[in-house]
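We treat protein structure as text, and this decision shapes the records that our systems exchange. This encoding replaces a full spatial description with a residue-level series of whole-number codes. Below, we set out a record of this kind in full and without editing:
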Amino acid sequence: MEFPAYYKQLYSERLSAIQKRLSDFKKIEKSEWFYEACYCILTPQSKAIHADIVCSILKKEDFFLTGYNTASILGNPEHYIRFHNQKSKNLQSLRNHFSEIESIIDTYKDFPFDLRDMLCSRIKGFGLKESAHFMRNIGIFGPTILDRHILKHLAECNVIEQGTIIKSSKHYVHIEQLWLLYCSQIHIPMEEMDLLFWSIETGIILK
């Protein structure tokens, strides 16, 4: 299989910035893990930039220590987070159990796919995608972050069929395996390809 010329060109142009961003993920302090998990609870079906703003507010208010009710912050129209009441509950649950989560990460960080499964089972609001997103943001690579935007680009690269929708966890893992195989065939790390696809969607290399 080939990487389409359009993607090759953009990859070449943005590789340095992409690799720097991935290096930044690996340097993140352990003290930031909690807020990265908060970010990944907030992002589903909401704008990433809104989630980033909300996390900045949570840090400023020292949410991890104070544990105040976050629903009003998440529901603010200026940085609205969909399903803010449920996500607020999920944030509180994360806070209450984060010492256990830290221990799990320390134990399983060298086994990323096992770690993903553990996080899915223990963090409310986390599925396969959110767990992989959180892991990537704290510098643990391996599992893929599959959403409709990534699926669109995988279809453009002929990895999957156009219009593919993930129907189950088993289907998610199947597509993940196809993507990882494709990456190995064209010798581009999946994490770099992921950030390339997202930079095409957003115009920036975010997280």
About this structure: The chain has a mean pLDDT of 94. The first helix runs from residue 5 to 26. Residues 101 and 119 are 7 Å apart (CA to CA).
